[in-house]
Amino acid sequence: MRSQKPTLLRRHVLKGAGVALSLPFIESLLPKTARGQEMPAKRFVSIYTPHGAPSSWEDTTGAGPAWQLSKIQASLAAVQSKMLMVRRLANFTWRSDLLNIGSATGGGSALPGGVKWDDVFTRDAEWCDGCVVPVGAYLTLSHARAAGAYANCLDGDDWRTKRGEDESASPRNPQTVDQLIAGAIGTATARPSLQLGLLNGNGALDFHHANLCREMSYDDKGNPLNKRVDPRAVFDDIVGAAAPVDPIAGERRRALDISALDAVQQSAETLSPRLATADRERLDQFLTSTRELELRIGAVAQGGSCRQLARPEGGLLLPGEVGFSGNGPQEITADTVWQRATAMNDLLVMALECDVTRVITYQLDNSRSDLVYSWLRLENGGQVNAFHDETHLRWDPKPASPPGFEAISTWMSQVVADLVQKLDGVPEGAGTLLDNSVVMYGSDQHNADHAAWDLPIVLFGGGSGTFKRGELLALPTEVSQMRQLRDFYFTLLNEYFQLNAASFGEDRRGVPNALLTEVLA
Amino acid sequence: MGHAMIVRRTLLGALLALLVQSPGCSEGAGSPEDRADGPVPSGPEAPGSGGAGSGGAGSGGPNGGAGPGKGVPVPVIQDPALDVGTKPVHRLSNYEYDTTLRDLLGVDLRPGRGFVLEESEQGFNNLAESLSVGSRQFGDYFAAAREVAAAVVSDPSLLAALLPGSAPETCDAACAQEFVTRFGLRAFRRPLEPWEVTQLTDSFAHAVTLGETPIGALEQVLRVVLSSPQFLYRFEIDEAPQGSAPRALNSYELASRLSYMLWASMPDDELFDLAAKGELLSAEVLSAQVDRLLDDRVRSASLIESFVGQWFRVGDLSGHSVDTSIFPEWDAELQSAMQTEVGLYFGEFLYGERAFAEFLTADLNYVNPRLAQHYGFAVPPTEEFALVAETADQRAGFLGLAGFLTVTSRANRTSPIARGNTVLSALLCLDLTLPPNIIVADLPELTGNTTVRQDLELHRASPACASCHDHIDPLGLALEHFDAIGRYRADYGGGLSIDAVGSLTTGEKFDGLVSMAQVLAQDPRVKACAAQQLFTYGLGRTVGPSGPYLEKLVADWQGAAPTFRNLIKSLVRNDAFRFRRGSGEQ
Q1: Which of A166, A256, A357, B238 qualifies as a FRET site for B166, CA 20 to 30 Å off?
Q2: What does residue B66 show for φ and ψ, rounded to 5 degrees?
Q3: Maximum CA extent, chain A
Q4: Burial class of residue B586 (count of CB atoms within 10 Å of its CB; 0-12, 13-18, 19+)
């Protein structure tokens, strides 16, 4: 896989895996502003990293506009003036009847060795090397439910149970914020939203459906939107949404697609009545999927041309990864993995720049990942091992943060910095594509302590001046005063996208939704 | 913190349940039908029961009419009162999709590797219940169909194989009809119904009117077929889909059940011929076909790769990562040798006459020079894998294979819990699970001053932890003499010795791999569990209410020579394999 510099190409030859694809030459679009519209398009990109951040994430100095990044955030310095670092946002969504476990105050259950839950979460916690959770803060105990809760601020277990779904077998989650936005603005683009992933580490699934660890976007019916991790497949999807250069060939191609779909739908409709109820539902889901594809085939972006990448070649499968169509394991080096990361970043930028979509979720790894980050090295020369292990690893003597966790978090910051700088390199109106977008980078828990408090969250771009930039914002630390992630989303929905949302998510303390005015410019 | 539970996956009745002493690690919690109160299986003869289940077999209708051949009677179910079970329409797994494309079209593109991952249930990714087609999956099917069809029509030899006797570039309506009928049967795994022939020939004609060449129009037909539910799902359509009466599967349905179990792929021409003649309805013919399919070592390698690979997790070996700063000898060559050995070892039991009872104890390894060196064996003279019976070492049976010991380890250390859990679920069919919303605290990592056994003793301090870990930990700790890449070690070094003593919760004691393997080999749960694993994978569904059929499978296997091949033959003769019922809604 090579990452290529974008070039302005009107005609673009696909390089396939030995297969001559019948994809047409394409061109894509100019950003809306370039076509004379006054307001730039509104866009939301949510970049997710699992397992929280190590303690040294918090080693920033100063506050407000005069703050210094911590060491593991150093690569973000280049875009520091366009970022708002938010500290101490909470996400109190855990089911209230579980608070004897979920809250540090209520629990008294014995852990091995007679350790009490209270002790674990109120003192210098043994399993988190130095992080301390305020008394009363909620926890997010299961990695499987954490990614969904991060994006919808609801307790998925509770939701599934109330719908009569099997808590451990259901792949569904309440609708996530990106899909709420896509539902409102997605009709403007060929793809209402895209779900991307960078790494796809397999991990223990906390007795939940694997989807819940692997996906962070759920539609209005609760169905997971499966992300793509293969840059080549992402490229094909974006290109498929772009306008064909040769209208006649494009029209024939479309007619053949529709004809094929018609036949497939006819078959499903003919077979369905011969089946039992549950099987008819399966075929109905199949049919619905064909109709969704039909809409996508019909929805081709309009416009002129935008920068067009080459189709990524081959693939890179990392040990422990799943669901990847590459050519099998290749040599894993810092370079090859970085190339994959930058290729995915390039595609994300292209999707926004060509206005194929305006809503993207981007999972840097799954919410419980045992992927071995073998391309990263510790200062002592040791190899970085499975992500989740590294977050809980104990050292003797104890460092401030587990070094493997720091190494991974540092690498994630580099990936994000690369992406954000690329977004900032695309001119749009008087500024850049980044300036007119809201790019969020964060995690579903604080640290290896599983605290649903002080989530590591950074905002980039500011959304055409909607949000503050170039600041470190510290919110209250008292549990009763803590602000919620749902309040940020509520603010995003109403102040940036202007959707007049009545509320978003839940706060198990019972505190109502309120604008997070602190982040507004 | 609630009590941990064991979900018992077998239905082997109260008998085996009594063997599971699990204070606090309560059983049950499965679906209601997972209870084993069912009747004892009836004897082989159930007079008067005949006929009740024959509806649908051999009838024409939706599955294309594989009528019974001359002299092959429609099978009669032995005990219509027992539940032969049903299963949802069965989507191909991504692996089956790829192998099917290979056998159907001769392409090796394997687009299924990039599809939405299946949800594994009971360790297997081919269970009908968990396979669905969402938006992304269908989009991927449609895109793959385009790519595959283009690849086929751009390769004259592949296209010629699909159109014997016709020139593709001049293919007309008659040629298209011939193609649709012939290719359609193989793609849908049964003869096409008239409306399907019409639909596909119409697709051909429509493409021509849109300006496609005959080859382009054939490409379009390929795309339609490969995107059609009849290709993507294995339908077993009942005449009374909501009824509950058992019916015999027709010949084509049996052909697919057989080929997807043993090859993870579509039937071949001989199976289709036998299906057309109705001869697969005969249990003897089915049984003989098991031999033929297994002896096709290329295709039956799928059974090892997919079934054994998932059963013991050894399929994950190719994606396994080892910390080379600790184990510098680890490389792709060693990884590959371990994987090859696992397959060859299982092959001893699948292809040879060796009794499955020896699976855990047989003193045999397959090594090439690299693996021999790893094991400390004499290095064989050639690069070929050679069978070694090395009685002087501490290694025995499947659990002693480096591949198994490595894949159940972490990158940098052994994991007695992962090893114990794998033994428990793969060999005893005991899956430990927790009530939702329980947090499992991680124990402290080894600092080098304590042994993993000492660390795991913390599990004993809490009844909630002990209820499950009393099952898990001893099985894993018994394997501690083998490091994270499966090498024998006498001790941990640094003056820390290894204590591999333990016992099953049923009381049997062991010390280390060899004696644990002997204890397990004597445990009736192991054979019963192997039968259950094959039943689950082979039928693509959980045992559910068909427990008596699993019991019968185990009993039949005991009666035959106890090879794994005979277990497969017992399964294909089992009524749960040859019959099904509707959903039972009415």
Answers
A1: A256
A2: -95, 80
A3: 75
A4: exposed
Find all residues with CB under 8 Å of A384, minimum gap 6, and list them.
A372, A373, A374, A376, A377, A378, A390, A404, A407, A408
Helix (H, G, I), strand (E, B), or coil: what is residue A152?
A: helix
Nearest by CB to residue B585, choosing from A113, A277, A293, is A277
Reported as a single tens digit per residue, the pLDDT across B261-286 is 999 999 999 999 999 999 999 999 99
A-chain residue closest to B198, CA distance: A263
The beta strand positions in B324-370, using DSSP E, are: 365-367
What is the value of ipTM here, to two decimals? Answer: 0.87
Query: What is the rounded distance in angstroms from the CA atom of residue A269 to the CA atom of residue B191?
Result: 19
- Nearest CB to A157 within list B137, B235, B436: B436
Q: What is the pTM of this model?
A: 0.87
Amino acid at A496: Y
Q: Is B580 on the interface with A (CB under 8 A)?
A: no
The DSSP secondary-structure symbol of A497 reads: S
Please indicate whether, in this complex, the C-beta atoms of A394 and B150 are within 8 angstroms of each other: no
Residue B300, φ and ψ in degrees, nearest 5: -75, -5
Beta-carbon pairs below 8 A across chains A and B: 237
Mutate to test the interface with B, among A138, A157, A275, A391 (most CBs of B within 10 A): A275
Angle, helices B524-539/B416-427, rounded to nearest 10 degrees: 80
Alpha-carbon gap: B33 to the closest alpha carbon of chain A (Å): 16
How far apart are alpha carbons A482 and B28 in whole angstroms?
42
3-state secondary structure of A495: helix
Task: HSE, CB side, 13 Å, CA atoms: give it for residue B424.
Answer: 28
| Angle between helical axes of B283-295 and B269-276 (0-180°, round to 10) | 170
Whether the CB-CB separation of A460 and A82 falls below 8 Å is answered with yes
pLDDT digits (tens, 9 = 90+) for B135-161: 899 999 999 999 999 999 999 999 999
CB A378 within 8 A of CB A41: no
Rounded to whole angstroms, how far apart are CA atoms B523 and B501?
A: 18
From the CA of A491, how many Å to the nearest CA of chain B?
Answer: 30
Nearest-angstrom CA–CA distance, B288 and B277: 16
